[in-house]
């Protein structure tokens, strides 16, 4: 039976996100943003915070990835049945889209924690009888369709979300927009509060997630006019959301939120340059510790650091775990991954070779093929001490460059087949991510500065004693103590240099450190290596988790 009745009427924080990753068989997410939203829900439940999550049902999921022998990606719908995992709520809301009243229903998922906390998550769905066939599809494809389709989705999320919460009887004290997709909600509140913008600002918290310009949704006003179809709302949208002649969802949220957050310290600075005149705070992202620790390390932590899961700060006591135990747990996790890869791909990866992992969305700014920029040097590295690679990641269906990068990696795979083993796994998702992140020796991250706002997969690596080797961008600027908690690739940001100079310095450093630092330490000075593994746990994981992040959101933005 639903516990919803018990929590209605008590003040809650409504957490809006276009994607939320709750479980493998609820494929309503595409990458880091959705994982962060899921980790937010998971930590909030354990901390007994009064949150309610709002998202779209995305009933055809993101997509299933197929790769042919050349790395050519094709996509299939990832249909799933909300009714198998969630309960249909009785209430419905209505949103005017173009000239039609579109009905919005909600599915309730109750996320329960071992501490007894429960966070309701409501998935909005326009597949309702009475809606036109076209309107029934609005909540179907995550990041699918064209610009107009996206605009309709955002209208349903922001406006429909606020209305459905009210219909259900929720009492909302704060609205938290996880990215600008939901910022139509500010407009709904503005009308509700009789135009009192200060009251809207007191009620709204906004987290922005990317310095990549295309990551900020904008729409031409003629299109918005056709979809919103309300002169009063248009006036407000022009007043609060206009930027360079278009409706900018980030600007709308910035103008009507009392608290604005960047997701790492560096991201706050970059955001202030991108949006001059606005004040940003920074609460650096985290990951949900228990979710992102593999079974082998959970068992170890349970034995030596009881209570760690709901108090990840305790991981600072990792020194109590003997080196041999750390190494055994890691070796077991690595064996599981390597055996899995060999079963799937028949490639014969070795259990004893230094294994480097790279898994994330295949987007150009993340430079997934960076390590293959100079094959001669990579071969030289491999002569100094053997290495092997495991890659995974989806390219957005319309991102031709992202798809091309996957094909390039397949090309290098072929070219290097006599010396360096490389494998690319399909369908990177939460389960594969944990298996990979816990099972490799080094987690590689080579984004182009300053475009990685935070990044979270490296935090997951640290939770499993896996060593980060990353460009100094996003969270890693805060997490990296060179040679102590992991390794930096290239110089710290801030100095005046051209992108070409930066790239060549990074490349040089990447090969140099692999050959002269990482390989000798991994193969010849195992105890020093295990020390870095322990520092990853005791100096990174203890801090870069969503328990700490949510406590900060509570004290700095919600109350
Ligand atoms: C953690 C995670 C991400 C985010 O990885 P980044 O390196 O931060 O981009 C993306 N996809 C999945 C499935 C993840 O688990």
UniProtKB/TrEMBL annotation:
InterPro entries tied to this protein: Agluc_phsphrylas, Glyco_trans_35, Glycogen/Maltodextrin_Phosph
TM spans (from-to): none
A Gene Ontology biological process term: carbohydrate metabolic process
A molecular function GO annotation: glycogen phosphorylase activity
NCBIfam families found in the cross-reference section: more_P_ylases
Record-stated family: Belongs to the glycogen phosphorylase family.
Protein name per its UniProtKB record: Alpha-glucan phosphorylase
Organism per entry: Methanolobus chelungpuianus
Upper classification of the organism: Archaea, Methanobacteriati, Methanobacteriota, Stenosarchaea group, Methanomicrobia
